[in-house]
């Protein structure tokens, strides 16, 4: 049994998602490096602004700061190793590395889903209960909810890591993807995968489907409230307060559901890989743009920070 365990820990997983793109290795590396660099700059800049500007110390921006921390962690969990694989031409990952990658990406996805749900509730209160907004959600409550979200994700991540790291594999593994994908990886195991499957199902139901239902319900109430506003200017102003979040939620769940529903057969494999590439690289880059493009609070916070830095260093 110990020999089998040591053998499993030494298993190397061959990641062959880029094999068909070998001729475009350098352009692909540069493209992904640029996307990753922009993603890091955008997300870390907004996190920094939320931390240092008192005017952004409110529930909505606390949630946004944590959301972009998730985006940064998710893309950092995957992209640097993918860049290494593209450049080195030796796309392998150990069983331990794969277990860590799966656990981190799963945990971050859970937190992001819960944060998007809390943000929809925040927008519901801001539009449907404006007079009671400060009483129903405030910084301390928001802070506690964020901690609970990270704690829930930590529990699931720990459980996922424990069950995945204890899987036994009987031979070499090859995954036709850009990273260690959960479903094909687990399917290669020659030991009982029931606990891992149950963890995946519980995550899908409790922290993916249920939050989606809550988000939809929030926006049903928001839309009804906006439609009851008599002036077109008032409706436009109310909708503008939640349009960025609605667009991000739409992109997030569309990509997520497509990845879950998309068949893994050879016929659809390239489409699935393309959607995955967009999900882990492009989406974390465009989400900060969506939130900040017309956000005057972020613009003013950036201007104030730049002015303060200019005063200090000049």
Automatic annotation (TrEMBL):
Alphabetic keyword roster: Cell membrane, Disulfide bond, G-protein coupled receptor, Glycoprotein, Membrane, Olfaction, Receptor, Sensory transduction, Transducer, Transmembrane, Transmembrane helix
Compartments reported by the entry: Cell membrane
Transmembrane intervals: 28-51, 63-87, 99-121, 141-165, 196-227, 239-262, 274-293
InterPro entries in the record: GPCR_Rhodpsn (IPR000276), GPCR_Rhodpsn_7TM (IPR017452), Olfact_rcpt (IPR000725), Olfactory_GPCR1 (IPR050939)
Signal peptide bounds: none
Main localization category: membrane
Residue ranges of every copy of the G-protein coupled receptors family 1 profile domain listed in the record: 42-291
Membrane association type: Multi-pass membrane protein
PANTHER family the UniProt entry points to: G-PROTEIN COUPLED RECEPTOR, OLFACTORY RECEPTOR-RELATED
Protein family according to the UniProt entry: Belongs to the G-protein coupled receptor 1 family.
Identification of the protein by name: Olfactory receptor
Species: Staurois parvus
């Amino acid at each position: 049994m110990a020999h089998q365990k040591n053998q499993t820990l030494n298993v190397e997983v061959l990641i062959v998602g880029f094999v068909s793109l070998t001729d475009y290795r350098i352009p692909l590396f540069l493209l992904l490096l640029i996307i990753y660099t922009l993603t890091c700059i955008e997300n870390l800049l907004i996190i920094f602004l939320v931390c240092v500007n008192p005017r952004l110390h409110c529930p909505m921006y606390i949630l946004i700061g944590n959301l972009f921390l998730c985006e940064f962690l998710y893309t950092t969990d995957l992209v640097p190793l993918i860049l290494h694989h593209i450049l080195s031409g030796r796309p392998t990952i150990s069983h331990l590395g794969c277990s860590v990658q799966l656990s981190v990406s799963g945990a971050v996805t859970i937190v992001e889903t819960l944060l998007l749900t809390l943000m929809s509730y925040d927008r519901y209160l801001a539009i449907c209960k404006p007079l009671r907004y400060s009483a129903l959600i405030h910084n301390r409550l928001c802070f506690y909810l964020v901690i609970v979200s990270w704690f829930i994700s930590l529990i699931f991540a720990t459980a996922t890591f424990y069950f995945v790291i204890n899987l036994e594999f009987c031979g070499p593994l090859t995954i036709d993807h850009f990273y260690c994908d959960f479903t094909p990886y687990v399917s290669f195991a020659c030991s009982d995968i029931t606990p891992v499957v149950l963890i995946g199902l519980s995550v899908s139901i409790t922290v993916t489907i249920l939050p989606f239902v809550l988000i939809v319900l929030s926006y049903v109430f928001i839309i009804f409230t906006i439609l009851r506003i008599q002036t077109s200017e008032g409706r436009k102003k109310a909708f503008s307060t939640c349009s960025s979040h609605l667009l991000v939620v739409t992109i997030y769940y569309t990509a997520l559901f497509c990845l879950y529903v998309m068949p893994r057969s050879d016929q659809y494999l390239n489409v699935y890989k393309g959607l995955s590439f967009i999900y882990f690289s492009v989406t974390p880059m465009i989400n900060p743009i969506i939130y900040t493009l017309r956000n005057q609070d972020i613009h003013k916070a950036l201007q104030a920070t730049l002015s303060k830095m200019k005063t200090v260093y000049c």
